[in-house]
């Protein structure tokens, strides 16, 4: 069993559980937290109820409560990571490990179609879309970093968006945070 849940990235003095509905209870317990410089933190929230609760309006509400950009990275079994970012009205999303993400997206499409259709074609279409979308995602991530107060270049992010997990996709996300300008505070 791999890493599951969302990694919520925010800048706030208040704990996430005090800012956000659903966080901290039995349905969405906090499993870990990492501190970053300038008041940023990444919080691992596991989902035992409604795994899609941390999207759309929830993300918008959290950004309003913190007054800063936020990120949410949904991780499933350390294989697939879906990243959503919001700064002001600029919402963006992308996927880490495009090969595995393409297979997951194809599987979802195949299941929605009742198990009918050409899975390989679905996967290839998703892979092509993810490749085509990489520059847009990298530029959106750079805008997110700028809104967070960091000046970063798109090239390292663009390159990261093409990497395969080795072995865990959440490690790609923590590398993305570094590319966005967030620096982890040393323990001790």
Briefly summarize what is shown:
With about 190 residues, the chain is α+β, with helices and mostly antiparallel strands. The chain has one domain. The protein is about 40% helix and about 20% strand.
Write a structural description:
This protein is of the alpha+beta class and 188 residues long. It has one domain. The chain is built from 6 helices and 6 strands; from the N terminus they run βαββαβββαααα. Strands 2-3-1-4-5-6 form a 6-stranded antiparallel sheet, with helices on both faces. A hairpin with a 2-residue loop joins β5 and β6. The longest helix is centred in the C-terminal third of the chain and has 29 residues. It starts with a strand and ends in a 9-residue tail after the last helix. The model has no long low-confidence stretch (mean pLDDT 89).
Secondary structure layout plus pairing:
Elements: E1 5-11, H1 16-19, E2 30-35, E3 40-45, H2 57-66, E4 70-76, E5 80-87, E6 90-96, H3 98-112, H4 119-147, H5 154-160, H6 169-179
Antiparallel strand pairs: 1-3, 1-4, 2-3, 4-5, 5-6
What keywords describe this structure?
188 residues; alpha+beta; 6-stranded antiparallel beta sheet; 6 strands; 40% helix; globular
Q: What is the terminal separation in angstroms?
A: 30 Å
> Largest sheet, described in full?
6 strands, antiparallel
User: Low-confidence spans: pLDDT under 50, at least 5 residues?
Assistant: none
Q: What is the number of independent domains?
A: 1
Mean pLDDT: 89
Number of strands: 6
Please estimate the helix content: 40-55%
């Amino acid at each position: 069993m791999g890493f599951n849940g969302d990694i919520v990235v925010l800048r706030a003095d208040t704990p996430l559980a005090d800012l956000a509905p659903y966080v901290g209870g039995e349905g969405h317990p906090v499993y870990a937290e990492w501190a970053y410089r300038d008041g940023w933190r990444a919080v691992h929230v596991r989902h035992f109820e409604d795994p899609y609760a941390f999207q759309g309006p929830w993300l918008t509400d959290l950004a309003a409560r913190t007054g800063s950009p936020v990120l949410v990275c949904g991780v499933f079994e350390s294989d697939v990571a879906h990243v959503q970012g919001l700064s002001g009205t600029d919402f963006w999303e992308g996927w880490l490990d495009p090969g595995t993400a393409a297979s997951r997206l194809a599987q979802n499409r195949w299941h929605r179609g009742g198990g009918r259709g050409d899975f390989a074609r679905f996967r290839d279409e998703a892979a092509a879309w993810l490749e085509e979308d990489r520059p847009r995602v990298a530029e959106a991530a750079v805008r997110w970093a700028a809104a967070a107060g960091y000046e970063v270049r798109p090239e390292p992010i663009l390159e990261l968006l093409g990497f395969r997990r080795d072995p865990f996709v959440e490690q790609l996300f923590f590398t993305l945070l570094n590319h966005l300008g967030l620096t982890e505070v040393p323990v001790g």
